[in-house]
């Protein structure tokens, strides 16, 4: 009976999505005009999916999944909130007054006994709790109209983060890569905490892929330098490539919470412990350190190329000045010979 109801509901989801898309075509075109998705500055490269072994304590209830995606550099949360309200399939939830830049929503219709929640973060990440794959794709399609700097769709599918969760009679905890939630009570803040860590990890994975693609794009330059060949890059191109590096470094170190715990957890010790455990399990600190080391190396290489090209430019200018002086001396000699000889 549950399977039949689930099939009917998913059909309803798709039909409602199609109906809303047709009904709001003009509104979507306006949204695209205002928030036109562009390709990210750095080229993107698909990396092998990181596999983690999940070993948790046994649970008497079935294990569910929380899945995180990062599809864009940023979301327009105001427009997304209105779109969810107009669609009528999901109900927005209020978390806490100091929770910013996130939209929390719950499905109005149940596929099974457990709730289905989603957390949409302003920095372009979304986390699904107990969502089937078909419904996840439907929501991701809905979000496309409100993305800024959309990522490559293949990369989005490759760079996902997934954790299993189940319920027990104790307080929320995170053990060996598995989430355990209380069977009773409000779970929004606990789910938000785990979602926060997962969203951070999947966003970092996108940046890691961007840096890998950047490194691949400059490998030919390293070979040219090693073999003593002419550098096939202008000073303007080197300047732009350096700008890409500093843009990525800014995102990692200044525009994200990769280096510090968010302020939200300062007076919530239990949630902070859960957040730190997830961050540690997903190796976020070590991955961030490795990325910064790679960025430093790439910046040093770009600086070396910049100095090399500037030196060549200065040499050309000096040669041109010497040639002009020689021409001037030649004219003076001709003028002198014409006057006195």
Automatic annotation (TrEMBL):
Annotated transmembrane regions: none
InterPro entries given in the database record: DUF155, RMD1/Sad1-interacting
Domain (DUF155): residue spans on this chain: 118-292
GO annotation terms (biological process): positive regulation of mitochondrial translation
Highest taxon of the lineage: Eukaryota
Entry GO terms, CC: mitochondrion
Recorded family membership: Belongs to the RMD1/sif2 family.
Protein name (database record): DUF155 domain-containing protein
Organism per entry: Ornithodoros erraticus
């Amino acid at each position: 009976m549950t399977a039949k109801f689930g099939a009917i509901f998913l059909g309803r989801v798709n039909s409602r999505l199609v109906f809303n898309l047709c009904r709001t075509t003009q509104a979507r075109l306006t949204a695209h005009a205002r928030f036109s998705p562009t390709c990210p500055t750095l080229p993107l490269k698909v990396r092998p999916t990181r596999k983690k072994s999940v070993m948790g304590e046994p649970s008497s209830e079935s294990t569910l999944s929380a899945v995180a995606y990062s599809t864009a550099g940023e979301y327009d949360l105001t427009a997304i909130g209105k779109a969810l309200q107009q669609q009528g399939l999901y109900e927005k939830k209020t978390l806490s007054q100091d929770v910013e830049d996130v939209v929390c929503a719950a499905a109005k219709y149940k596929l099974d006994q457990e709730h289905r929640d989603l957390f949409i973060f302003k920095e372009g990440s979304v986390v699904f709790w107990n969502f089937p794959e078909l419904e996840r794709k439907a929501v991701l399609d809905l979000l496309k109209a409100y993305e800024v700097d959309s990522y490559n769709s293949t990369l989005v599918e490759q760079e996902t983060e997934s954790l299993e969760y189940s319920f027990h009679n104790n307080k929320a905890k995170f053990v060996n890569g598995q989430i355990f939630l209380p069977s009773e009570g409000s779970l929004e803040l606990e789910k938000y905490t785990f979602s926060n860590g997962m969203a951070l990890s999947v966003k970092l994975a996108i940046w890691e892929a961007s840096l890998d693609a950047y490194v691949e794009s400059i490998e030919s330059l390293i070979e040219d330098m090693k073999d003593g060949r002419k550098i096939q890059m202008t000073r303007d191109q080197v300047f732009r490539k350096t700008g890409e590096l500093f843009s990525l470094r800014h995102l990692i170190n200044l525009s994200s919470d990769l280096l510090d715990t968010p302020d939200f957890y300062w007076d919530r010790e239990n949630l902070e412990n859960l957040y730190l455990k997830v961050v540690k399990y997903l190796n976020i600190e070590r991955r961030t350190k490795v990325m910064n080391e790679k960025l430093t190396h790439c910046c040093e290489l770009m600086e070396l190329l910049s100095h090399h090209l500037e030196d060549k430019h200065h040499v050309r200018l000096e040669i041109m000045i010497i040639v002009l002086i020689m021409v001037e001396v030649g004219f003076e000699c001709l003028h002198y010979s014409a006057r006195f000889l």
